[in-house]
Specification:
There is one protein chain. By secondary structure, this protein is of the alpha/beta class. The protein has helices at about 50-60, 75-80, 85-90, 110-115, 120-130, 135-155, 160-180, 195-200, 230-240, 275-290, 325-335, 340, 365-415, 465-470, 495-500, 545-550, 555-565, 565-575; strands spanning about 35-40, 65-70, 90-95, 100, 155-160, 205-210, 215-220, 245, 250, 255-260, 300-310, 350-355, 420-430, 440-445, 460, 475-480, 505-515, 535-540. Strands 1, 2, 6, 7, 9, 10, 11 and 12 form an eight-stranded mixed β-sheet that branches. A six-stranded antiparallel β-sheet has the order 15-14-13-18-17-16, with helices on both faces. A two-stranded antiparallel sheet has the order 3-4. Helix 1 links the parallel strand 1 and strand 2. Helix 1 (about 50-60) packs across helix 13 (about 365-415), helix 5 (about 120-130) crosses helix 6 and helix 13 (about 365-415) packs antiparallel against helix 17. It is elongated. The two termini are about 30 Å apart.
Amino acid sequence: MRGGPARGLKGRPGAVGGLCRPDFKEREMPKRSLRRLAFVVFAGGGARGFAHIGALKAIEKDFYVRGYAGSSAGAIVAALASVGYTADEIFHVKENGELRHILQLCGAKSIPELYGPAWKRVEIAAHLGKPSKNPLARLKKLYLGYRLVRHAVKGKGLLSTEPLRKAINDVLRRKLIEQGALPDGVEDVLFRHIGTRAHAAKTADLKVVATALLSQRLILFSADATPNVSVAEAVTSSLALPGFFEPVRVGDMTDELFADGGLTSNLPVWIFKYEKLHEERLLEQRMLEGNAERWAPGPIPILAFGLAKPPTFRKPDLLASPPTTFAYWVFETAMSGSQSMATNFTEDVAPINLPCDLELTDFDPPVGRLKRAKDAAYDHASSRIGDLLYRRPKIDENLRELLEEAKERIRSLDPARAFKLRACLVAPITSRHSGPAPEAFRVLRMVGDETYTDDRLVLDRGNAVAPRAFLDKRDVAWPRDEVGRGATLGDLMTRYERALVWPALKSVYAVPIFENMEAWDPKKYPLNERRPPPLGVVAFDSDEDLCDIYRNSEFLNWAIAACGTFAPAFVEEMVSC
């Protein structure tokens, strides 16, 4: 495109057809009539895993969860949720200040009380980390530190996980008995006792990640892989933070030692990949049969709850910090650093990083601080889930409005032409680690002929249409603009990717989305390459060759102005991905 937008629009986002109102962020909340199926994954993070209780509360009212998974601290919340515990049953402070939490079922008020005198080692370890200028105090710390290290080295950790194992098994067993889902006389809750196969209406599938130290690999505990393994043993093996907890032996696997699952996969978003596909096939079959009135259509999301420090957190100067602080940050980075990359390789993952100001080993903070951590996580998770449930369908609605207006424009220019038309949003696949030029592009949204929806399609940067429009910062009409180049839509595609392309496709028109409509001003940007980087691309495709209409000045100017209205929505969409 060499010209500017149509006169009279003045480059105002939202000026065409009301496609994207100025108050887009203040979305109207429709009634929550349909529940969404989902899978949920909780990340590890030591005491910060307490924030997952707030996330659990946020998903309870909108989702029917088919499966829970967790690593480290996330495994505890996953196990409790899988047997039916609600967030308020796990931890709740009433308006009158009365505290109710799950350890009370075991007769304990807190984790220190659960451990008794053995918890003194943790208090000593915390005391050793505080600075002291008094020589006698330093000498005392040195002595206590020696005893502590000696005990930790001898037992490979400060504490045993046995008190936690007993408590977890007890609360799981109580809930299953309450639901009538556990056979009489069963003392240890095993993986085969829970899950959709055992009691589909009362429990959800559970998967727990741990690290096998001797074989140096990830171990996945589940009803399919380890049906006769104790759930409590699997959970405590997953949270056995090296140095803090002793390594764990599980069941009859006496030749193996298990430790924190975060060492190998802190946020295992891949864990429900095939179960998700299975549920989507079942859901689509029910929809075809007319038996899915209760469920929202579309891909089943994997809600991946990570843990992050709040925005107000001040990062330490590691080079000027004591060796213990430096070692702590190295260990924590190793535990959670791969978290952001894991979400890039699984479809329909909704990553939600929960802010939490608790420290990794802050297992006995004041009740008020725990309540604030739960409430902050609930507020953040609710906001992000609201985006998933409401804003994204609104983008689809806006895209459909754009498509209908495009059809009207085409019919006004050529009333006799019969055609099918679709519209899609295409986004670059980028991350914090990628450069300015993305290597691939993904179809985010597709509306139109529902028989063929290419919303799983990934395009190479060398593809002839949408990627070229993005990289060249100009509109592209295919095949007209590619005459003489020998480029086809099938270039740089595998045969599996070609199978996703609409078989009847004959023409495509792609328009890059810029954050500001001034990017199309030929006086300010006489050359395409000087325009700012696009946000993404809106593309129209048809089963007829419409290139003559795509290059009609009236349609062209309308398309540029109309597609520009998606900039605010597109920014929010990419922030949430």
